[in-house]
Structures are given as structure tokens and as C-alpha cells.
Amino acid sequence: MVFPHQQRRSLPILWWCLLRGPCMVMRVTSFYWITPPLQTILKKRGSPITVHQQSNSDQNERSCNEGFGLYVHIPYCRRRCNYCDFAIVPIGDNGSGGDDEENTRTIGFHKMDEEYKKAILNEINLIGKSSHGNKIPLRSIYFGGGTPSLAPLSTLRDIMHALLHSESAPFQLIGIADDQNERAEITIEMDPGTFDKQFLISIKDFGFNRISLGVQSFDDNILSTMGRVHRSADIYNSVNMIAEVFGEDETNYSIDLISGVPGLTLAGWTEALHKAVSLRPKPKHISVYDLQVEAGTTFGKWYADEMEEREDDKGATQLSRMSPTTSSLHPSLPSADDCAFMYRYASGYLRACNYEHYEISSYALRDQNRRPHRSKHNQIYWEIGGKWYAIGLGATSNVNGTRYSRPRALSEYVYWTKELKEDNNSNDPPWISKGSEQDSDQTAAANKDDALLDIILTRLRTKDGLDLDWIANNEEYGESYVEAIMKGVEFFVDTELVTLSPGRIKLTDPDGFLFSNNIISNIFAELDDDTD
After folding, report:
1. What's the Cα-to-Cα distance from 135 to each of 128, 169, 201, 320, 327, rounded to whole Å?
2. Could you give the C-alpha distances from 495 to 339, 519, 521, in angstroms and in order?
3. 25 touches 3 (CB < 8 A)
4. Cβ-based neighbours of 143, under 8 Å, separated by 6 or more
5. What is d(CA 25, CA 13) in angstroms, rounded to the nearest whole number?
6. CA distances from 207 to 165, 183, 195, 362, 388 (A)
7. Per-residue exposure over 387-423, b if at least 16 CB sit within 10 Å of its own CB, e if not
8. E strands, 48-88, where?
């Protein structure tokens, strides 16, 4: 698509993983009639942001070992899809033809790619210098985009070599290499129709062991409306090639699907889910996103008359769907009620098909021992104390308690890395800055509270929920914060959208997840009122 992932700018949303690859903050299901004040809080986030560094804990939602995640952004796309407002670089179909114009375009792309690769390698080199010769342990690597499968194999090879295998490589993988459940996860996003068997053989040799396939829909008409290049036949061909190269037992791939898109009917959505679970081998992970119409995108222009802006009591503006209208030019958007049905149906159907619904938009296939194939990389974003490096255009890292966003424009990013390389001072690079000792008490308190909001936002997205005991026992927070949280969910417990167990709250599935924006907003409001 593209849950980690540059910052998406509209509400109602929840962050799919804070950062999908952390390059982008993906939005997910929580529907349009809800008007939460989240945007007011999230607008405070800039670049860099110093956030509170949480203490260690042995709870299952805590970072369970010392490893980091690593996100690498490859921004290339064949064209910009009609719903997309990500930081990408459309490159067309380079090398697909033989005329002079196409050859010139291909030459231009390779020059641009060399420049971008140098910028990536500059960042990797700076990370190596900042680690002072110590290898940084990695639990996962995620190449996201954009469409990384459009990058030349030489680019992917050189980046992987610089990360892990060169003399100055700053990272090392942790885990058991021969055990699929315990080894480090190395994922690459790929679109159907953008790779062949030789490409798969090569990336397997480079170390990639998981593929995220941008399916989005199995309906060619829907794919065309969305502005996707591939068609349903490309999906089946891609899955067959993946199985052939990696072996059916070792094949580990995820697919993305999007609900709420123009022209999608309830019957069409049920058929899409059936086709998804009927793929062979089955996808071990399915991500289901609800379309958000963004201003400035093609859909934003097509459906401007079907969206309305609403303001909450703090002045935050969001887009919401009105009743669909019939257009002679474009397919109608599904109604908010239909979108809600699609979410509920996906949750029930996929759980019935042996998938664990472990996060608002994420489903993991259970193996024969009932162990779910959760995304190891995305779980780092949802952990309390999760930490990750990020490299590339628009990518956002979280190291030493500092969340840092890189430039979103290609020329600005390349210039930024050159400046950092030429800077001869001995200071650490900005993305691992530990903040100034002169930070005011007011700033420290704001960072502490922002950190808790992040924890609530991410933990309540998950099946495991929010650990209240951790908040109560943390010296930065304590019982007063727990009391405010409990006040914030009181109504939703009565309406069976939230469940309570000793020391923990969870959103119910599917309706609690469906109204997660409302619930989390209410918690934030109580925290704002009771902990000033």
C-alpha cells in the first residue's frame, strides 16, 4: 500500500502501527460518524520529537528482548493510486518497452535510484558510527514503500549488504535462523505483476523470508477504479511463484485488502474475503484496511461532494462520509453503515477461518499447534517500550526515546543525508538524540503524557489490551491515571464495547474495535481533565 506506514493527515483514524514500516502512519477502521479529538493531540507531533522512555517490564506487551526493528523505505511506484497520499516517487513502467522515450526514462530512473541508494547508505554509515563498533541487535527488518519490488536487485542487495554483511555493518540479526517461529523476520513489500521468478530467487538469497503482497482487491473493476496497475490474474501468478521459490512449507506471505472502496458491494466484499482464504498456500497474515478519502488525492477530488468536514470542541477537523450519491462519472462510495458491516463481517469470517484477530486491522493464521503467525515487525510498534531504527524518505524512527521523521520530498531527503555526512562534529545523529538536559519541567511532563497517550493508542488496538497494573506501578503515572482511564471507559463497559479483567482493559471484537476512536478519545479527554 502502504500501515508504518509517512504520516497520514486525516481523522477519523487510528495509527496502524504508529508507522507502517514506520515510514507512514496507516489509518484503519474506526468509522466515519465518530468525531474524536485525537487530531488535536497528534498535531503536536513534529520532527524530531523526544518522547518519554518507558521502563522495562515482563508483561507480554512489553518489549520482550533487547532487539530493535528496522524499517527501510523504498519510495518507487509505477503510478500514484487514486487513494494514495504517501511519500512516493512514481516511476512508470521502466524498461517495459524499447522506444527512445522509454529508454530515456529508464536511464533517468537508474540515475535517480543511484542517488537514492547513496543517501540510504549514508544513513546506514552514520548509524554505524554512532554505535561505536557495537552491533545493534535486530528482531526484524521491513522494506516498505512505495513498492520495493520495483527497485533494482542491485539496490536491494547493496542495502542488505551494508546493513548486515559489510565490515562496517551496524546491525546483526538475533533469533534462531533455522526455526521459522524464532528467526528474525525480514519482510519486503511487493505488488503483483512487479516481479518474476528470478527476482524471488534473488531476494531469497539476500535473506528476505517474508513477503507483504499488495493485493487490495480481487475484482479487476475495483482495482481499475482504485488506480492499481495489477489485475486478479497477477495475484494468483504471484502466489504461485512465491510458493515455487520458497517452498509451500516455508512460504510466509501477507496480503492487504481494502474495504469501503468505490463500487464495492457487500456481496463483493464477502467474495474478496473468500478468495483471500482460498489462496494456496494460504496467506499467513491478512491486513484489512478501511478506505479513507484524503483531500488532495484523486478520490478526494472525485468524492468531495460526498464528504463533509466536522469540527470537535477543540477545533480539530475531520472528514466523514455522508449518504452516498449516484454519480454518472464514478462508482459510489459505500455508506458508513456498509463500511461497518464490512468490518464486522471480516472479523467474524476470518476468525472462523482460523485467523487470529490480534490487532484492529491484522489477522494471523494459526498453525497446527494453534500458534498465530503474527507480524513480528509490526508488534514492535505496538509494544510498550518498542524501539526501531528507520532509514529512507519520510521514515520515522524511535531510538533512545526520540521519535524522528525524515524529509518526505526526495530532493530534500537526499540533501539532508549529504549534510549529515559532511557534518564533522562528534555529536550523535539527530534520530538518537537523548534530548537536552535543559529541557523544562513542562516539556518533560508533556513528553511523559504523550508517551502514555501513545501506549493507550497502540495497546487498545490489540487483542491483548492495556495493562493497567503497569500504569499504576509506574512512578511516572500511578493510580490517578488509572482512575482517569477507568472513568473514560465506564460508559463503554456498560455498552459492552470494553471488557474489564483484573488489571487490564480490552476492546471487544468487533464492535469495540469498530468504535475505538470514540473510546480512546474519551479516555484522552478524562486524562486531560483529571491529570492536569
Report:
1. 8, 8, 28, 47, 58
2. 21, 11, 16
3. yes
4. 21, 72, 74, 156, 187, 188, 189, 208
5. 10
6. 11, 11, 17, 24, 19
7. bbbbbbbbbbbbbbbbbbbbbbebeebbebbeebeee
8. 49-50, 68-73, 76-77
Show the cell assigned to 313.
470542541
Burial 81-101 (b: 16+ CB within 10 A, else e): bbbbbbbbbebbebeeeeeee
Residues 519, 523, 529, 532: what is their CA dihedral angle, to the nearest 10 degrees?
Answer: -150
Task: Enumerate residues 6+ apart whose C-beta is below 8 A from 105.
Answer: 92, 94
Q: Which three cell numbers stand for residue 59?
A: 508483561
Query: What is the distance between the alpha carbons of residues 422 and 269, in angstroms, rounded to a whole number?
Result: 52
What single DSSP character describes residue 148? G
Query: Cα dihedral angle (74, 75, 79, 83), rounded to 10 degrees?
Result: 110
Q: CA 439, 444, 450, 451: dihedral to nearest 10 degrees?
A: 110
Instruction: Write out 79-146 in H/E/C secondary structure.
Output: CCCCCCCCCCEECCCCCCCCCHHHHHHHHHHHHHHHHHHHHHHHHHHHHHHHCCCCCEEEEEEEEECC
User: Reduced to 3 states, what is the DSSP secondary structure of residue 206?
Assistant: helix
Q: Which of 93-97, 281-285, 499-503 has the lowest mean pLDDT?
A: 93-97
Cβ atoms of 36 and 11 within 8 Å: the answer is yes
Cell numbers at 42, concatenated = 497528534
Cell numbers at 240, concatenated? 504461485
Given a contact cutoff of 8 angstroms between Cβ atoms, the answer to whether 312 and 37 are in contact is yes
User: Is the Cα torsion angle 355, 369, 185, 246 positive or negative in sign?
Assistant: negative
C-alpha to C-alpha distance for 482 and 257, rounded to whole angstroms: 36
Contact 26, 9 (CB under 8 A): no
Residue 227: all three cell numbers together = 488506480
User: pLDDT, tens digit, for every residue of 109-164?
Assistant: 999 999 999 999 999 999 998 888 899 999 999 999 999 999 999 999 999 999 99
Q: Is pTM beyond 0.90 here?
A: no
Q: Which pLDDT score is estimated for 320?
A: 57
Sequence-ordered list of residues with C-beta below 8 angstroms from that of 530, at least 6 positions apart, any chain: 480, 483, 484, 487
CB 69 within 8 A of CB 377: yes
Q: Is 332 helix (H, G, I), strand (E, B) or coil?
A: coil
**463: which 3 cell numbers?**
487483542
The pLDDT tens digits for 377-401 are 999 999 998 999 999 999 999 998 8
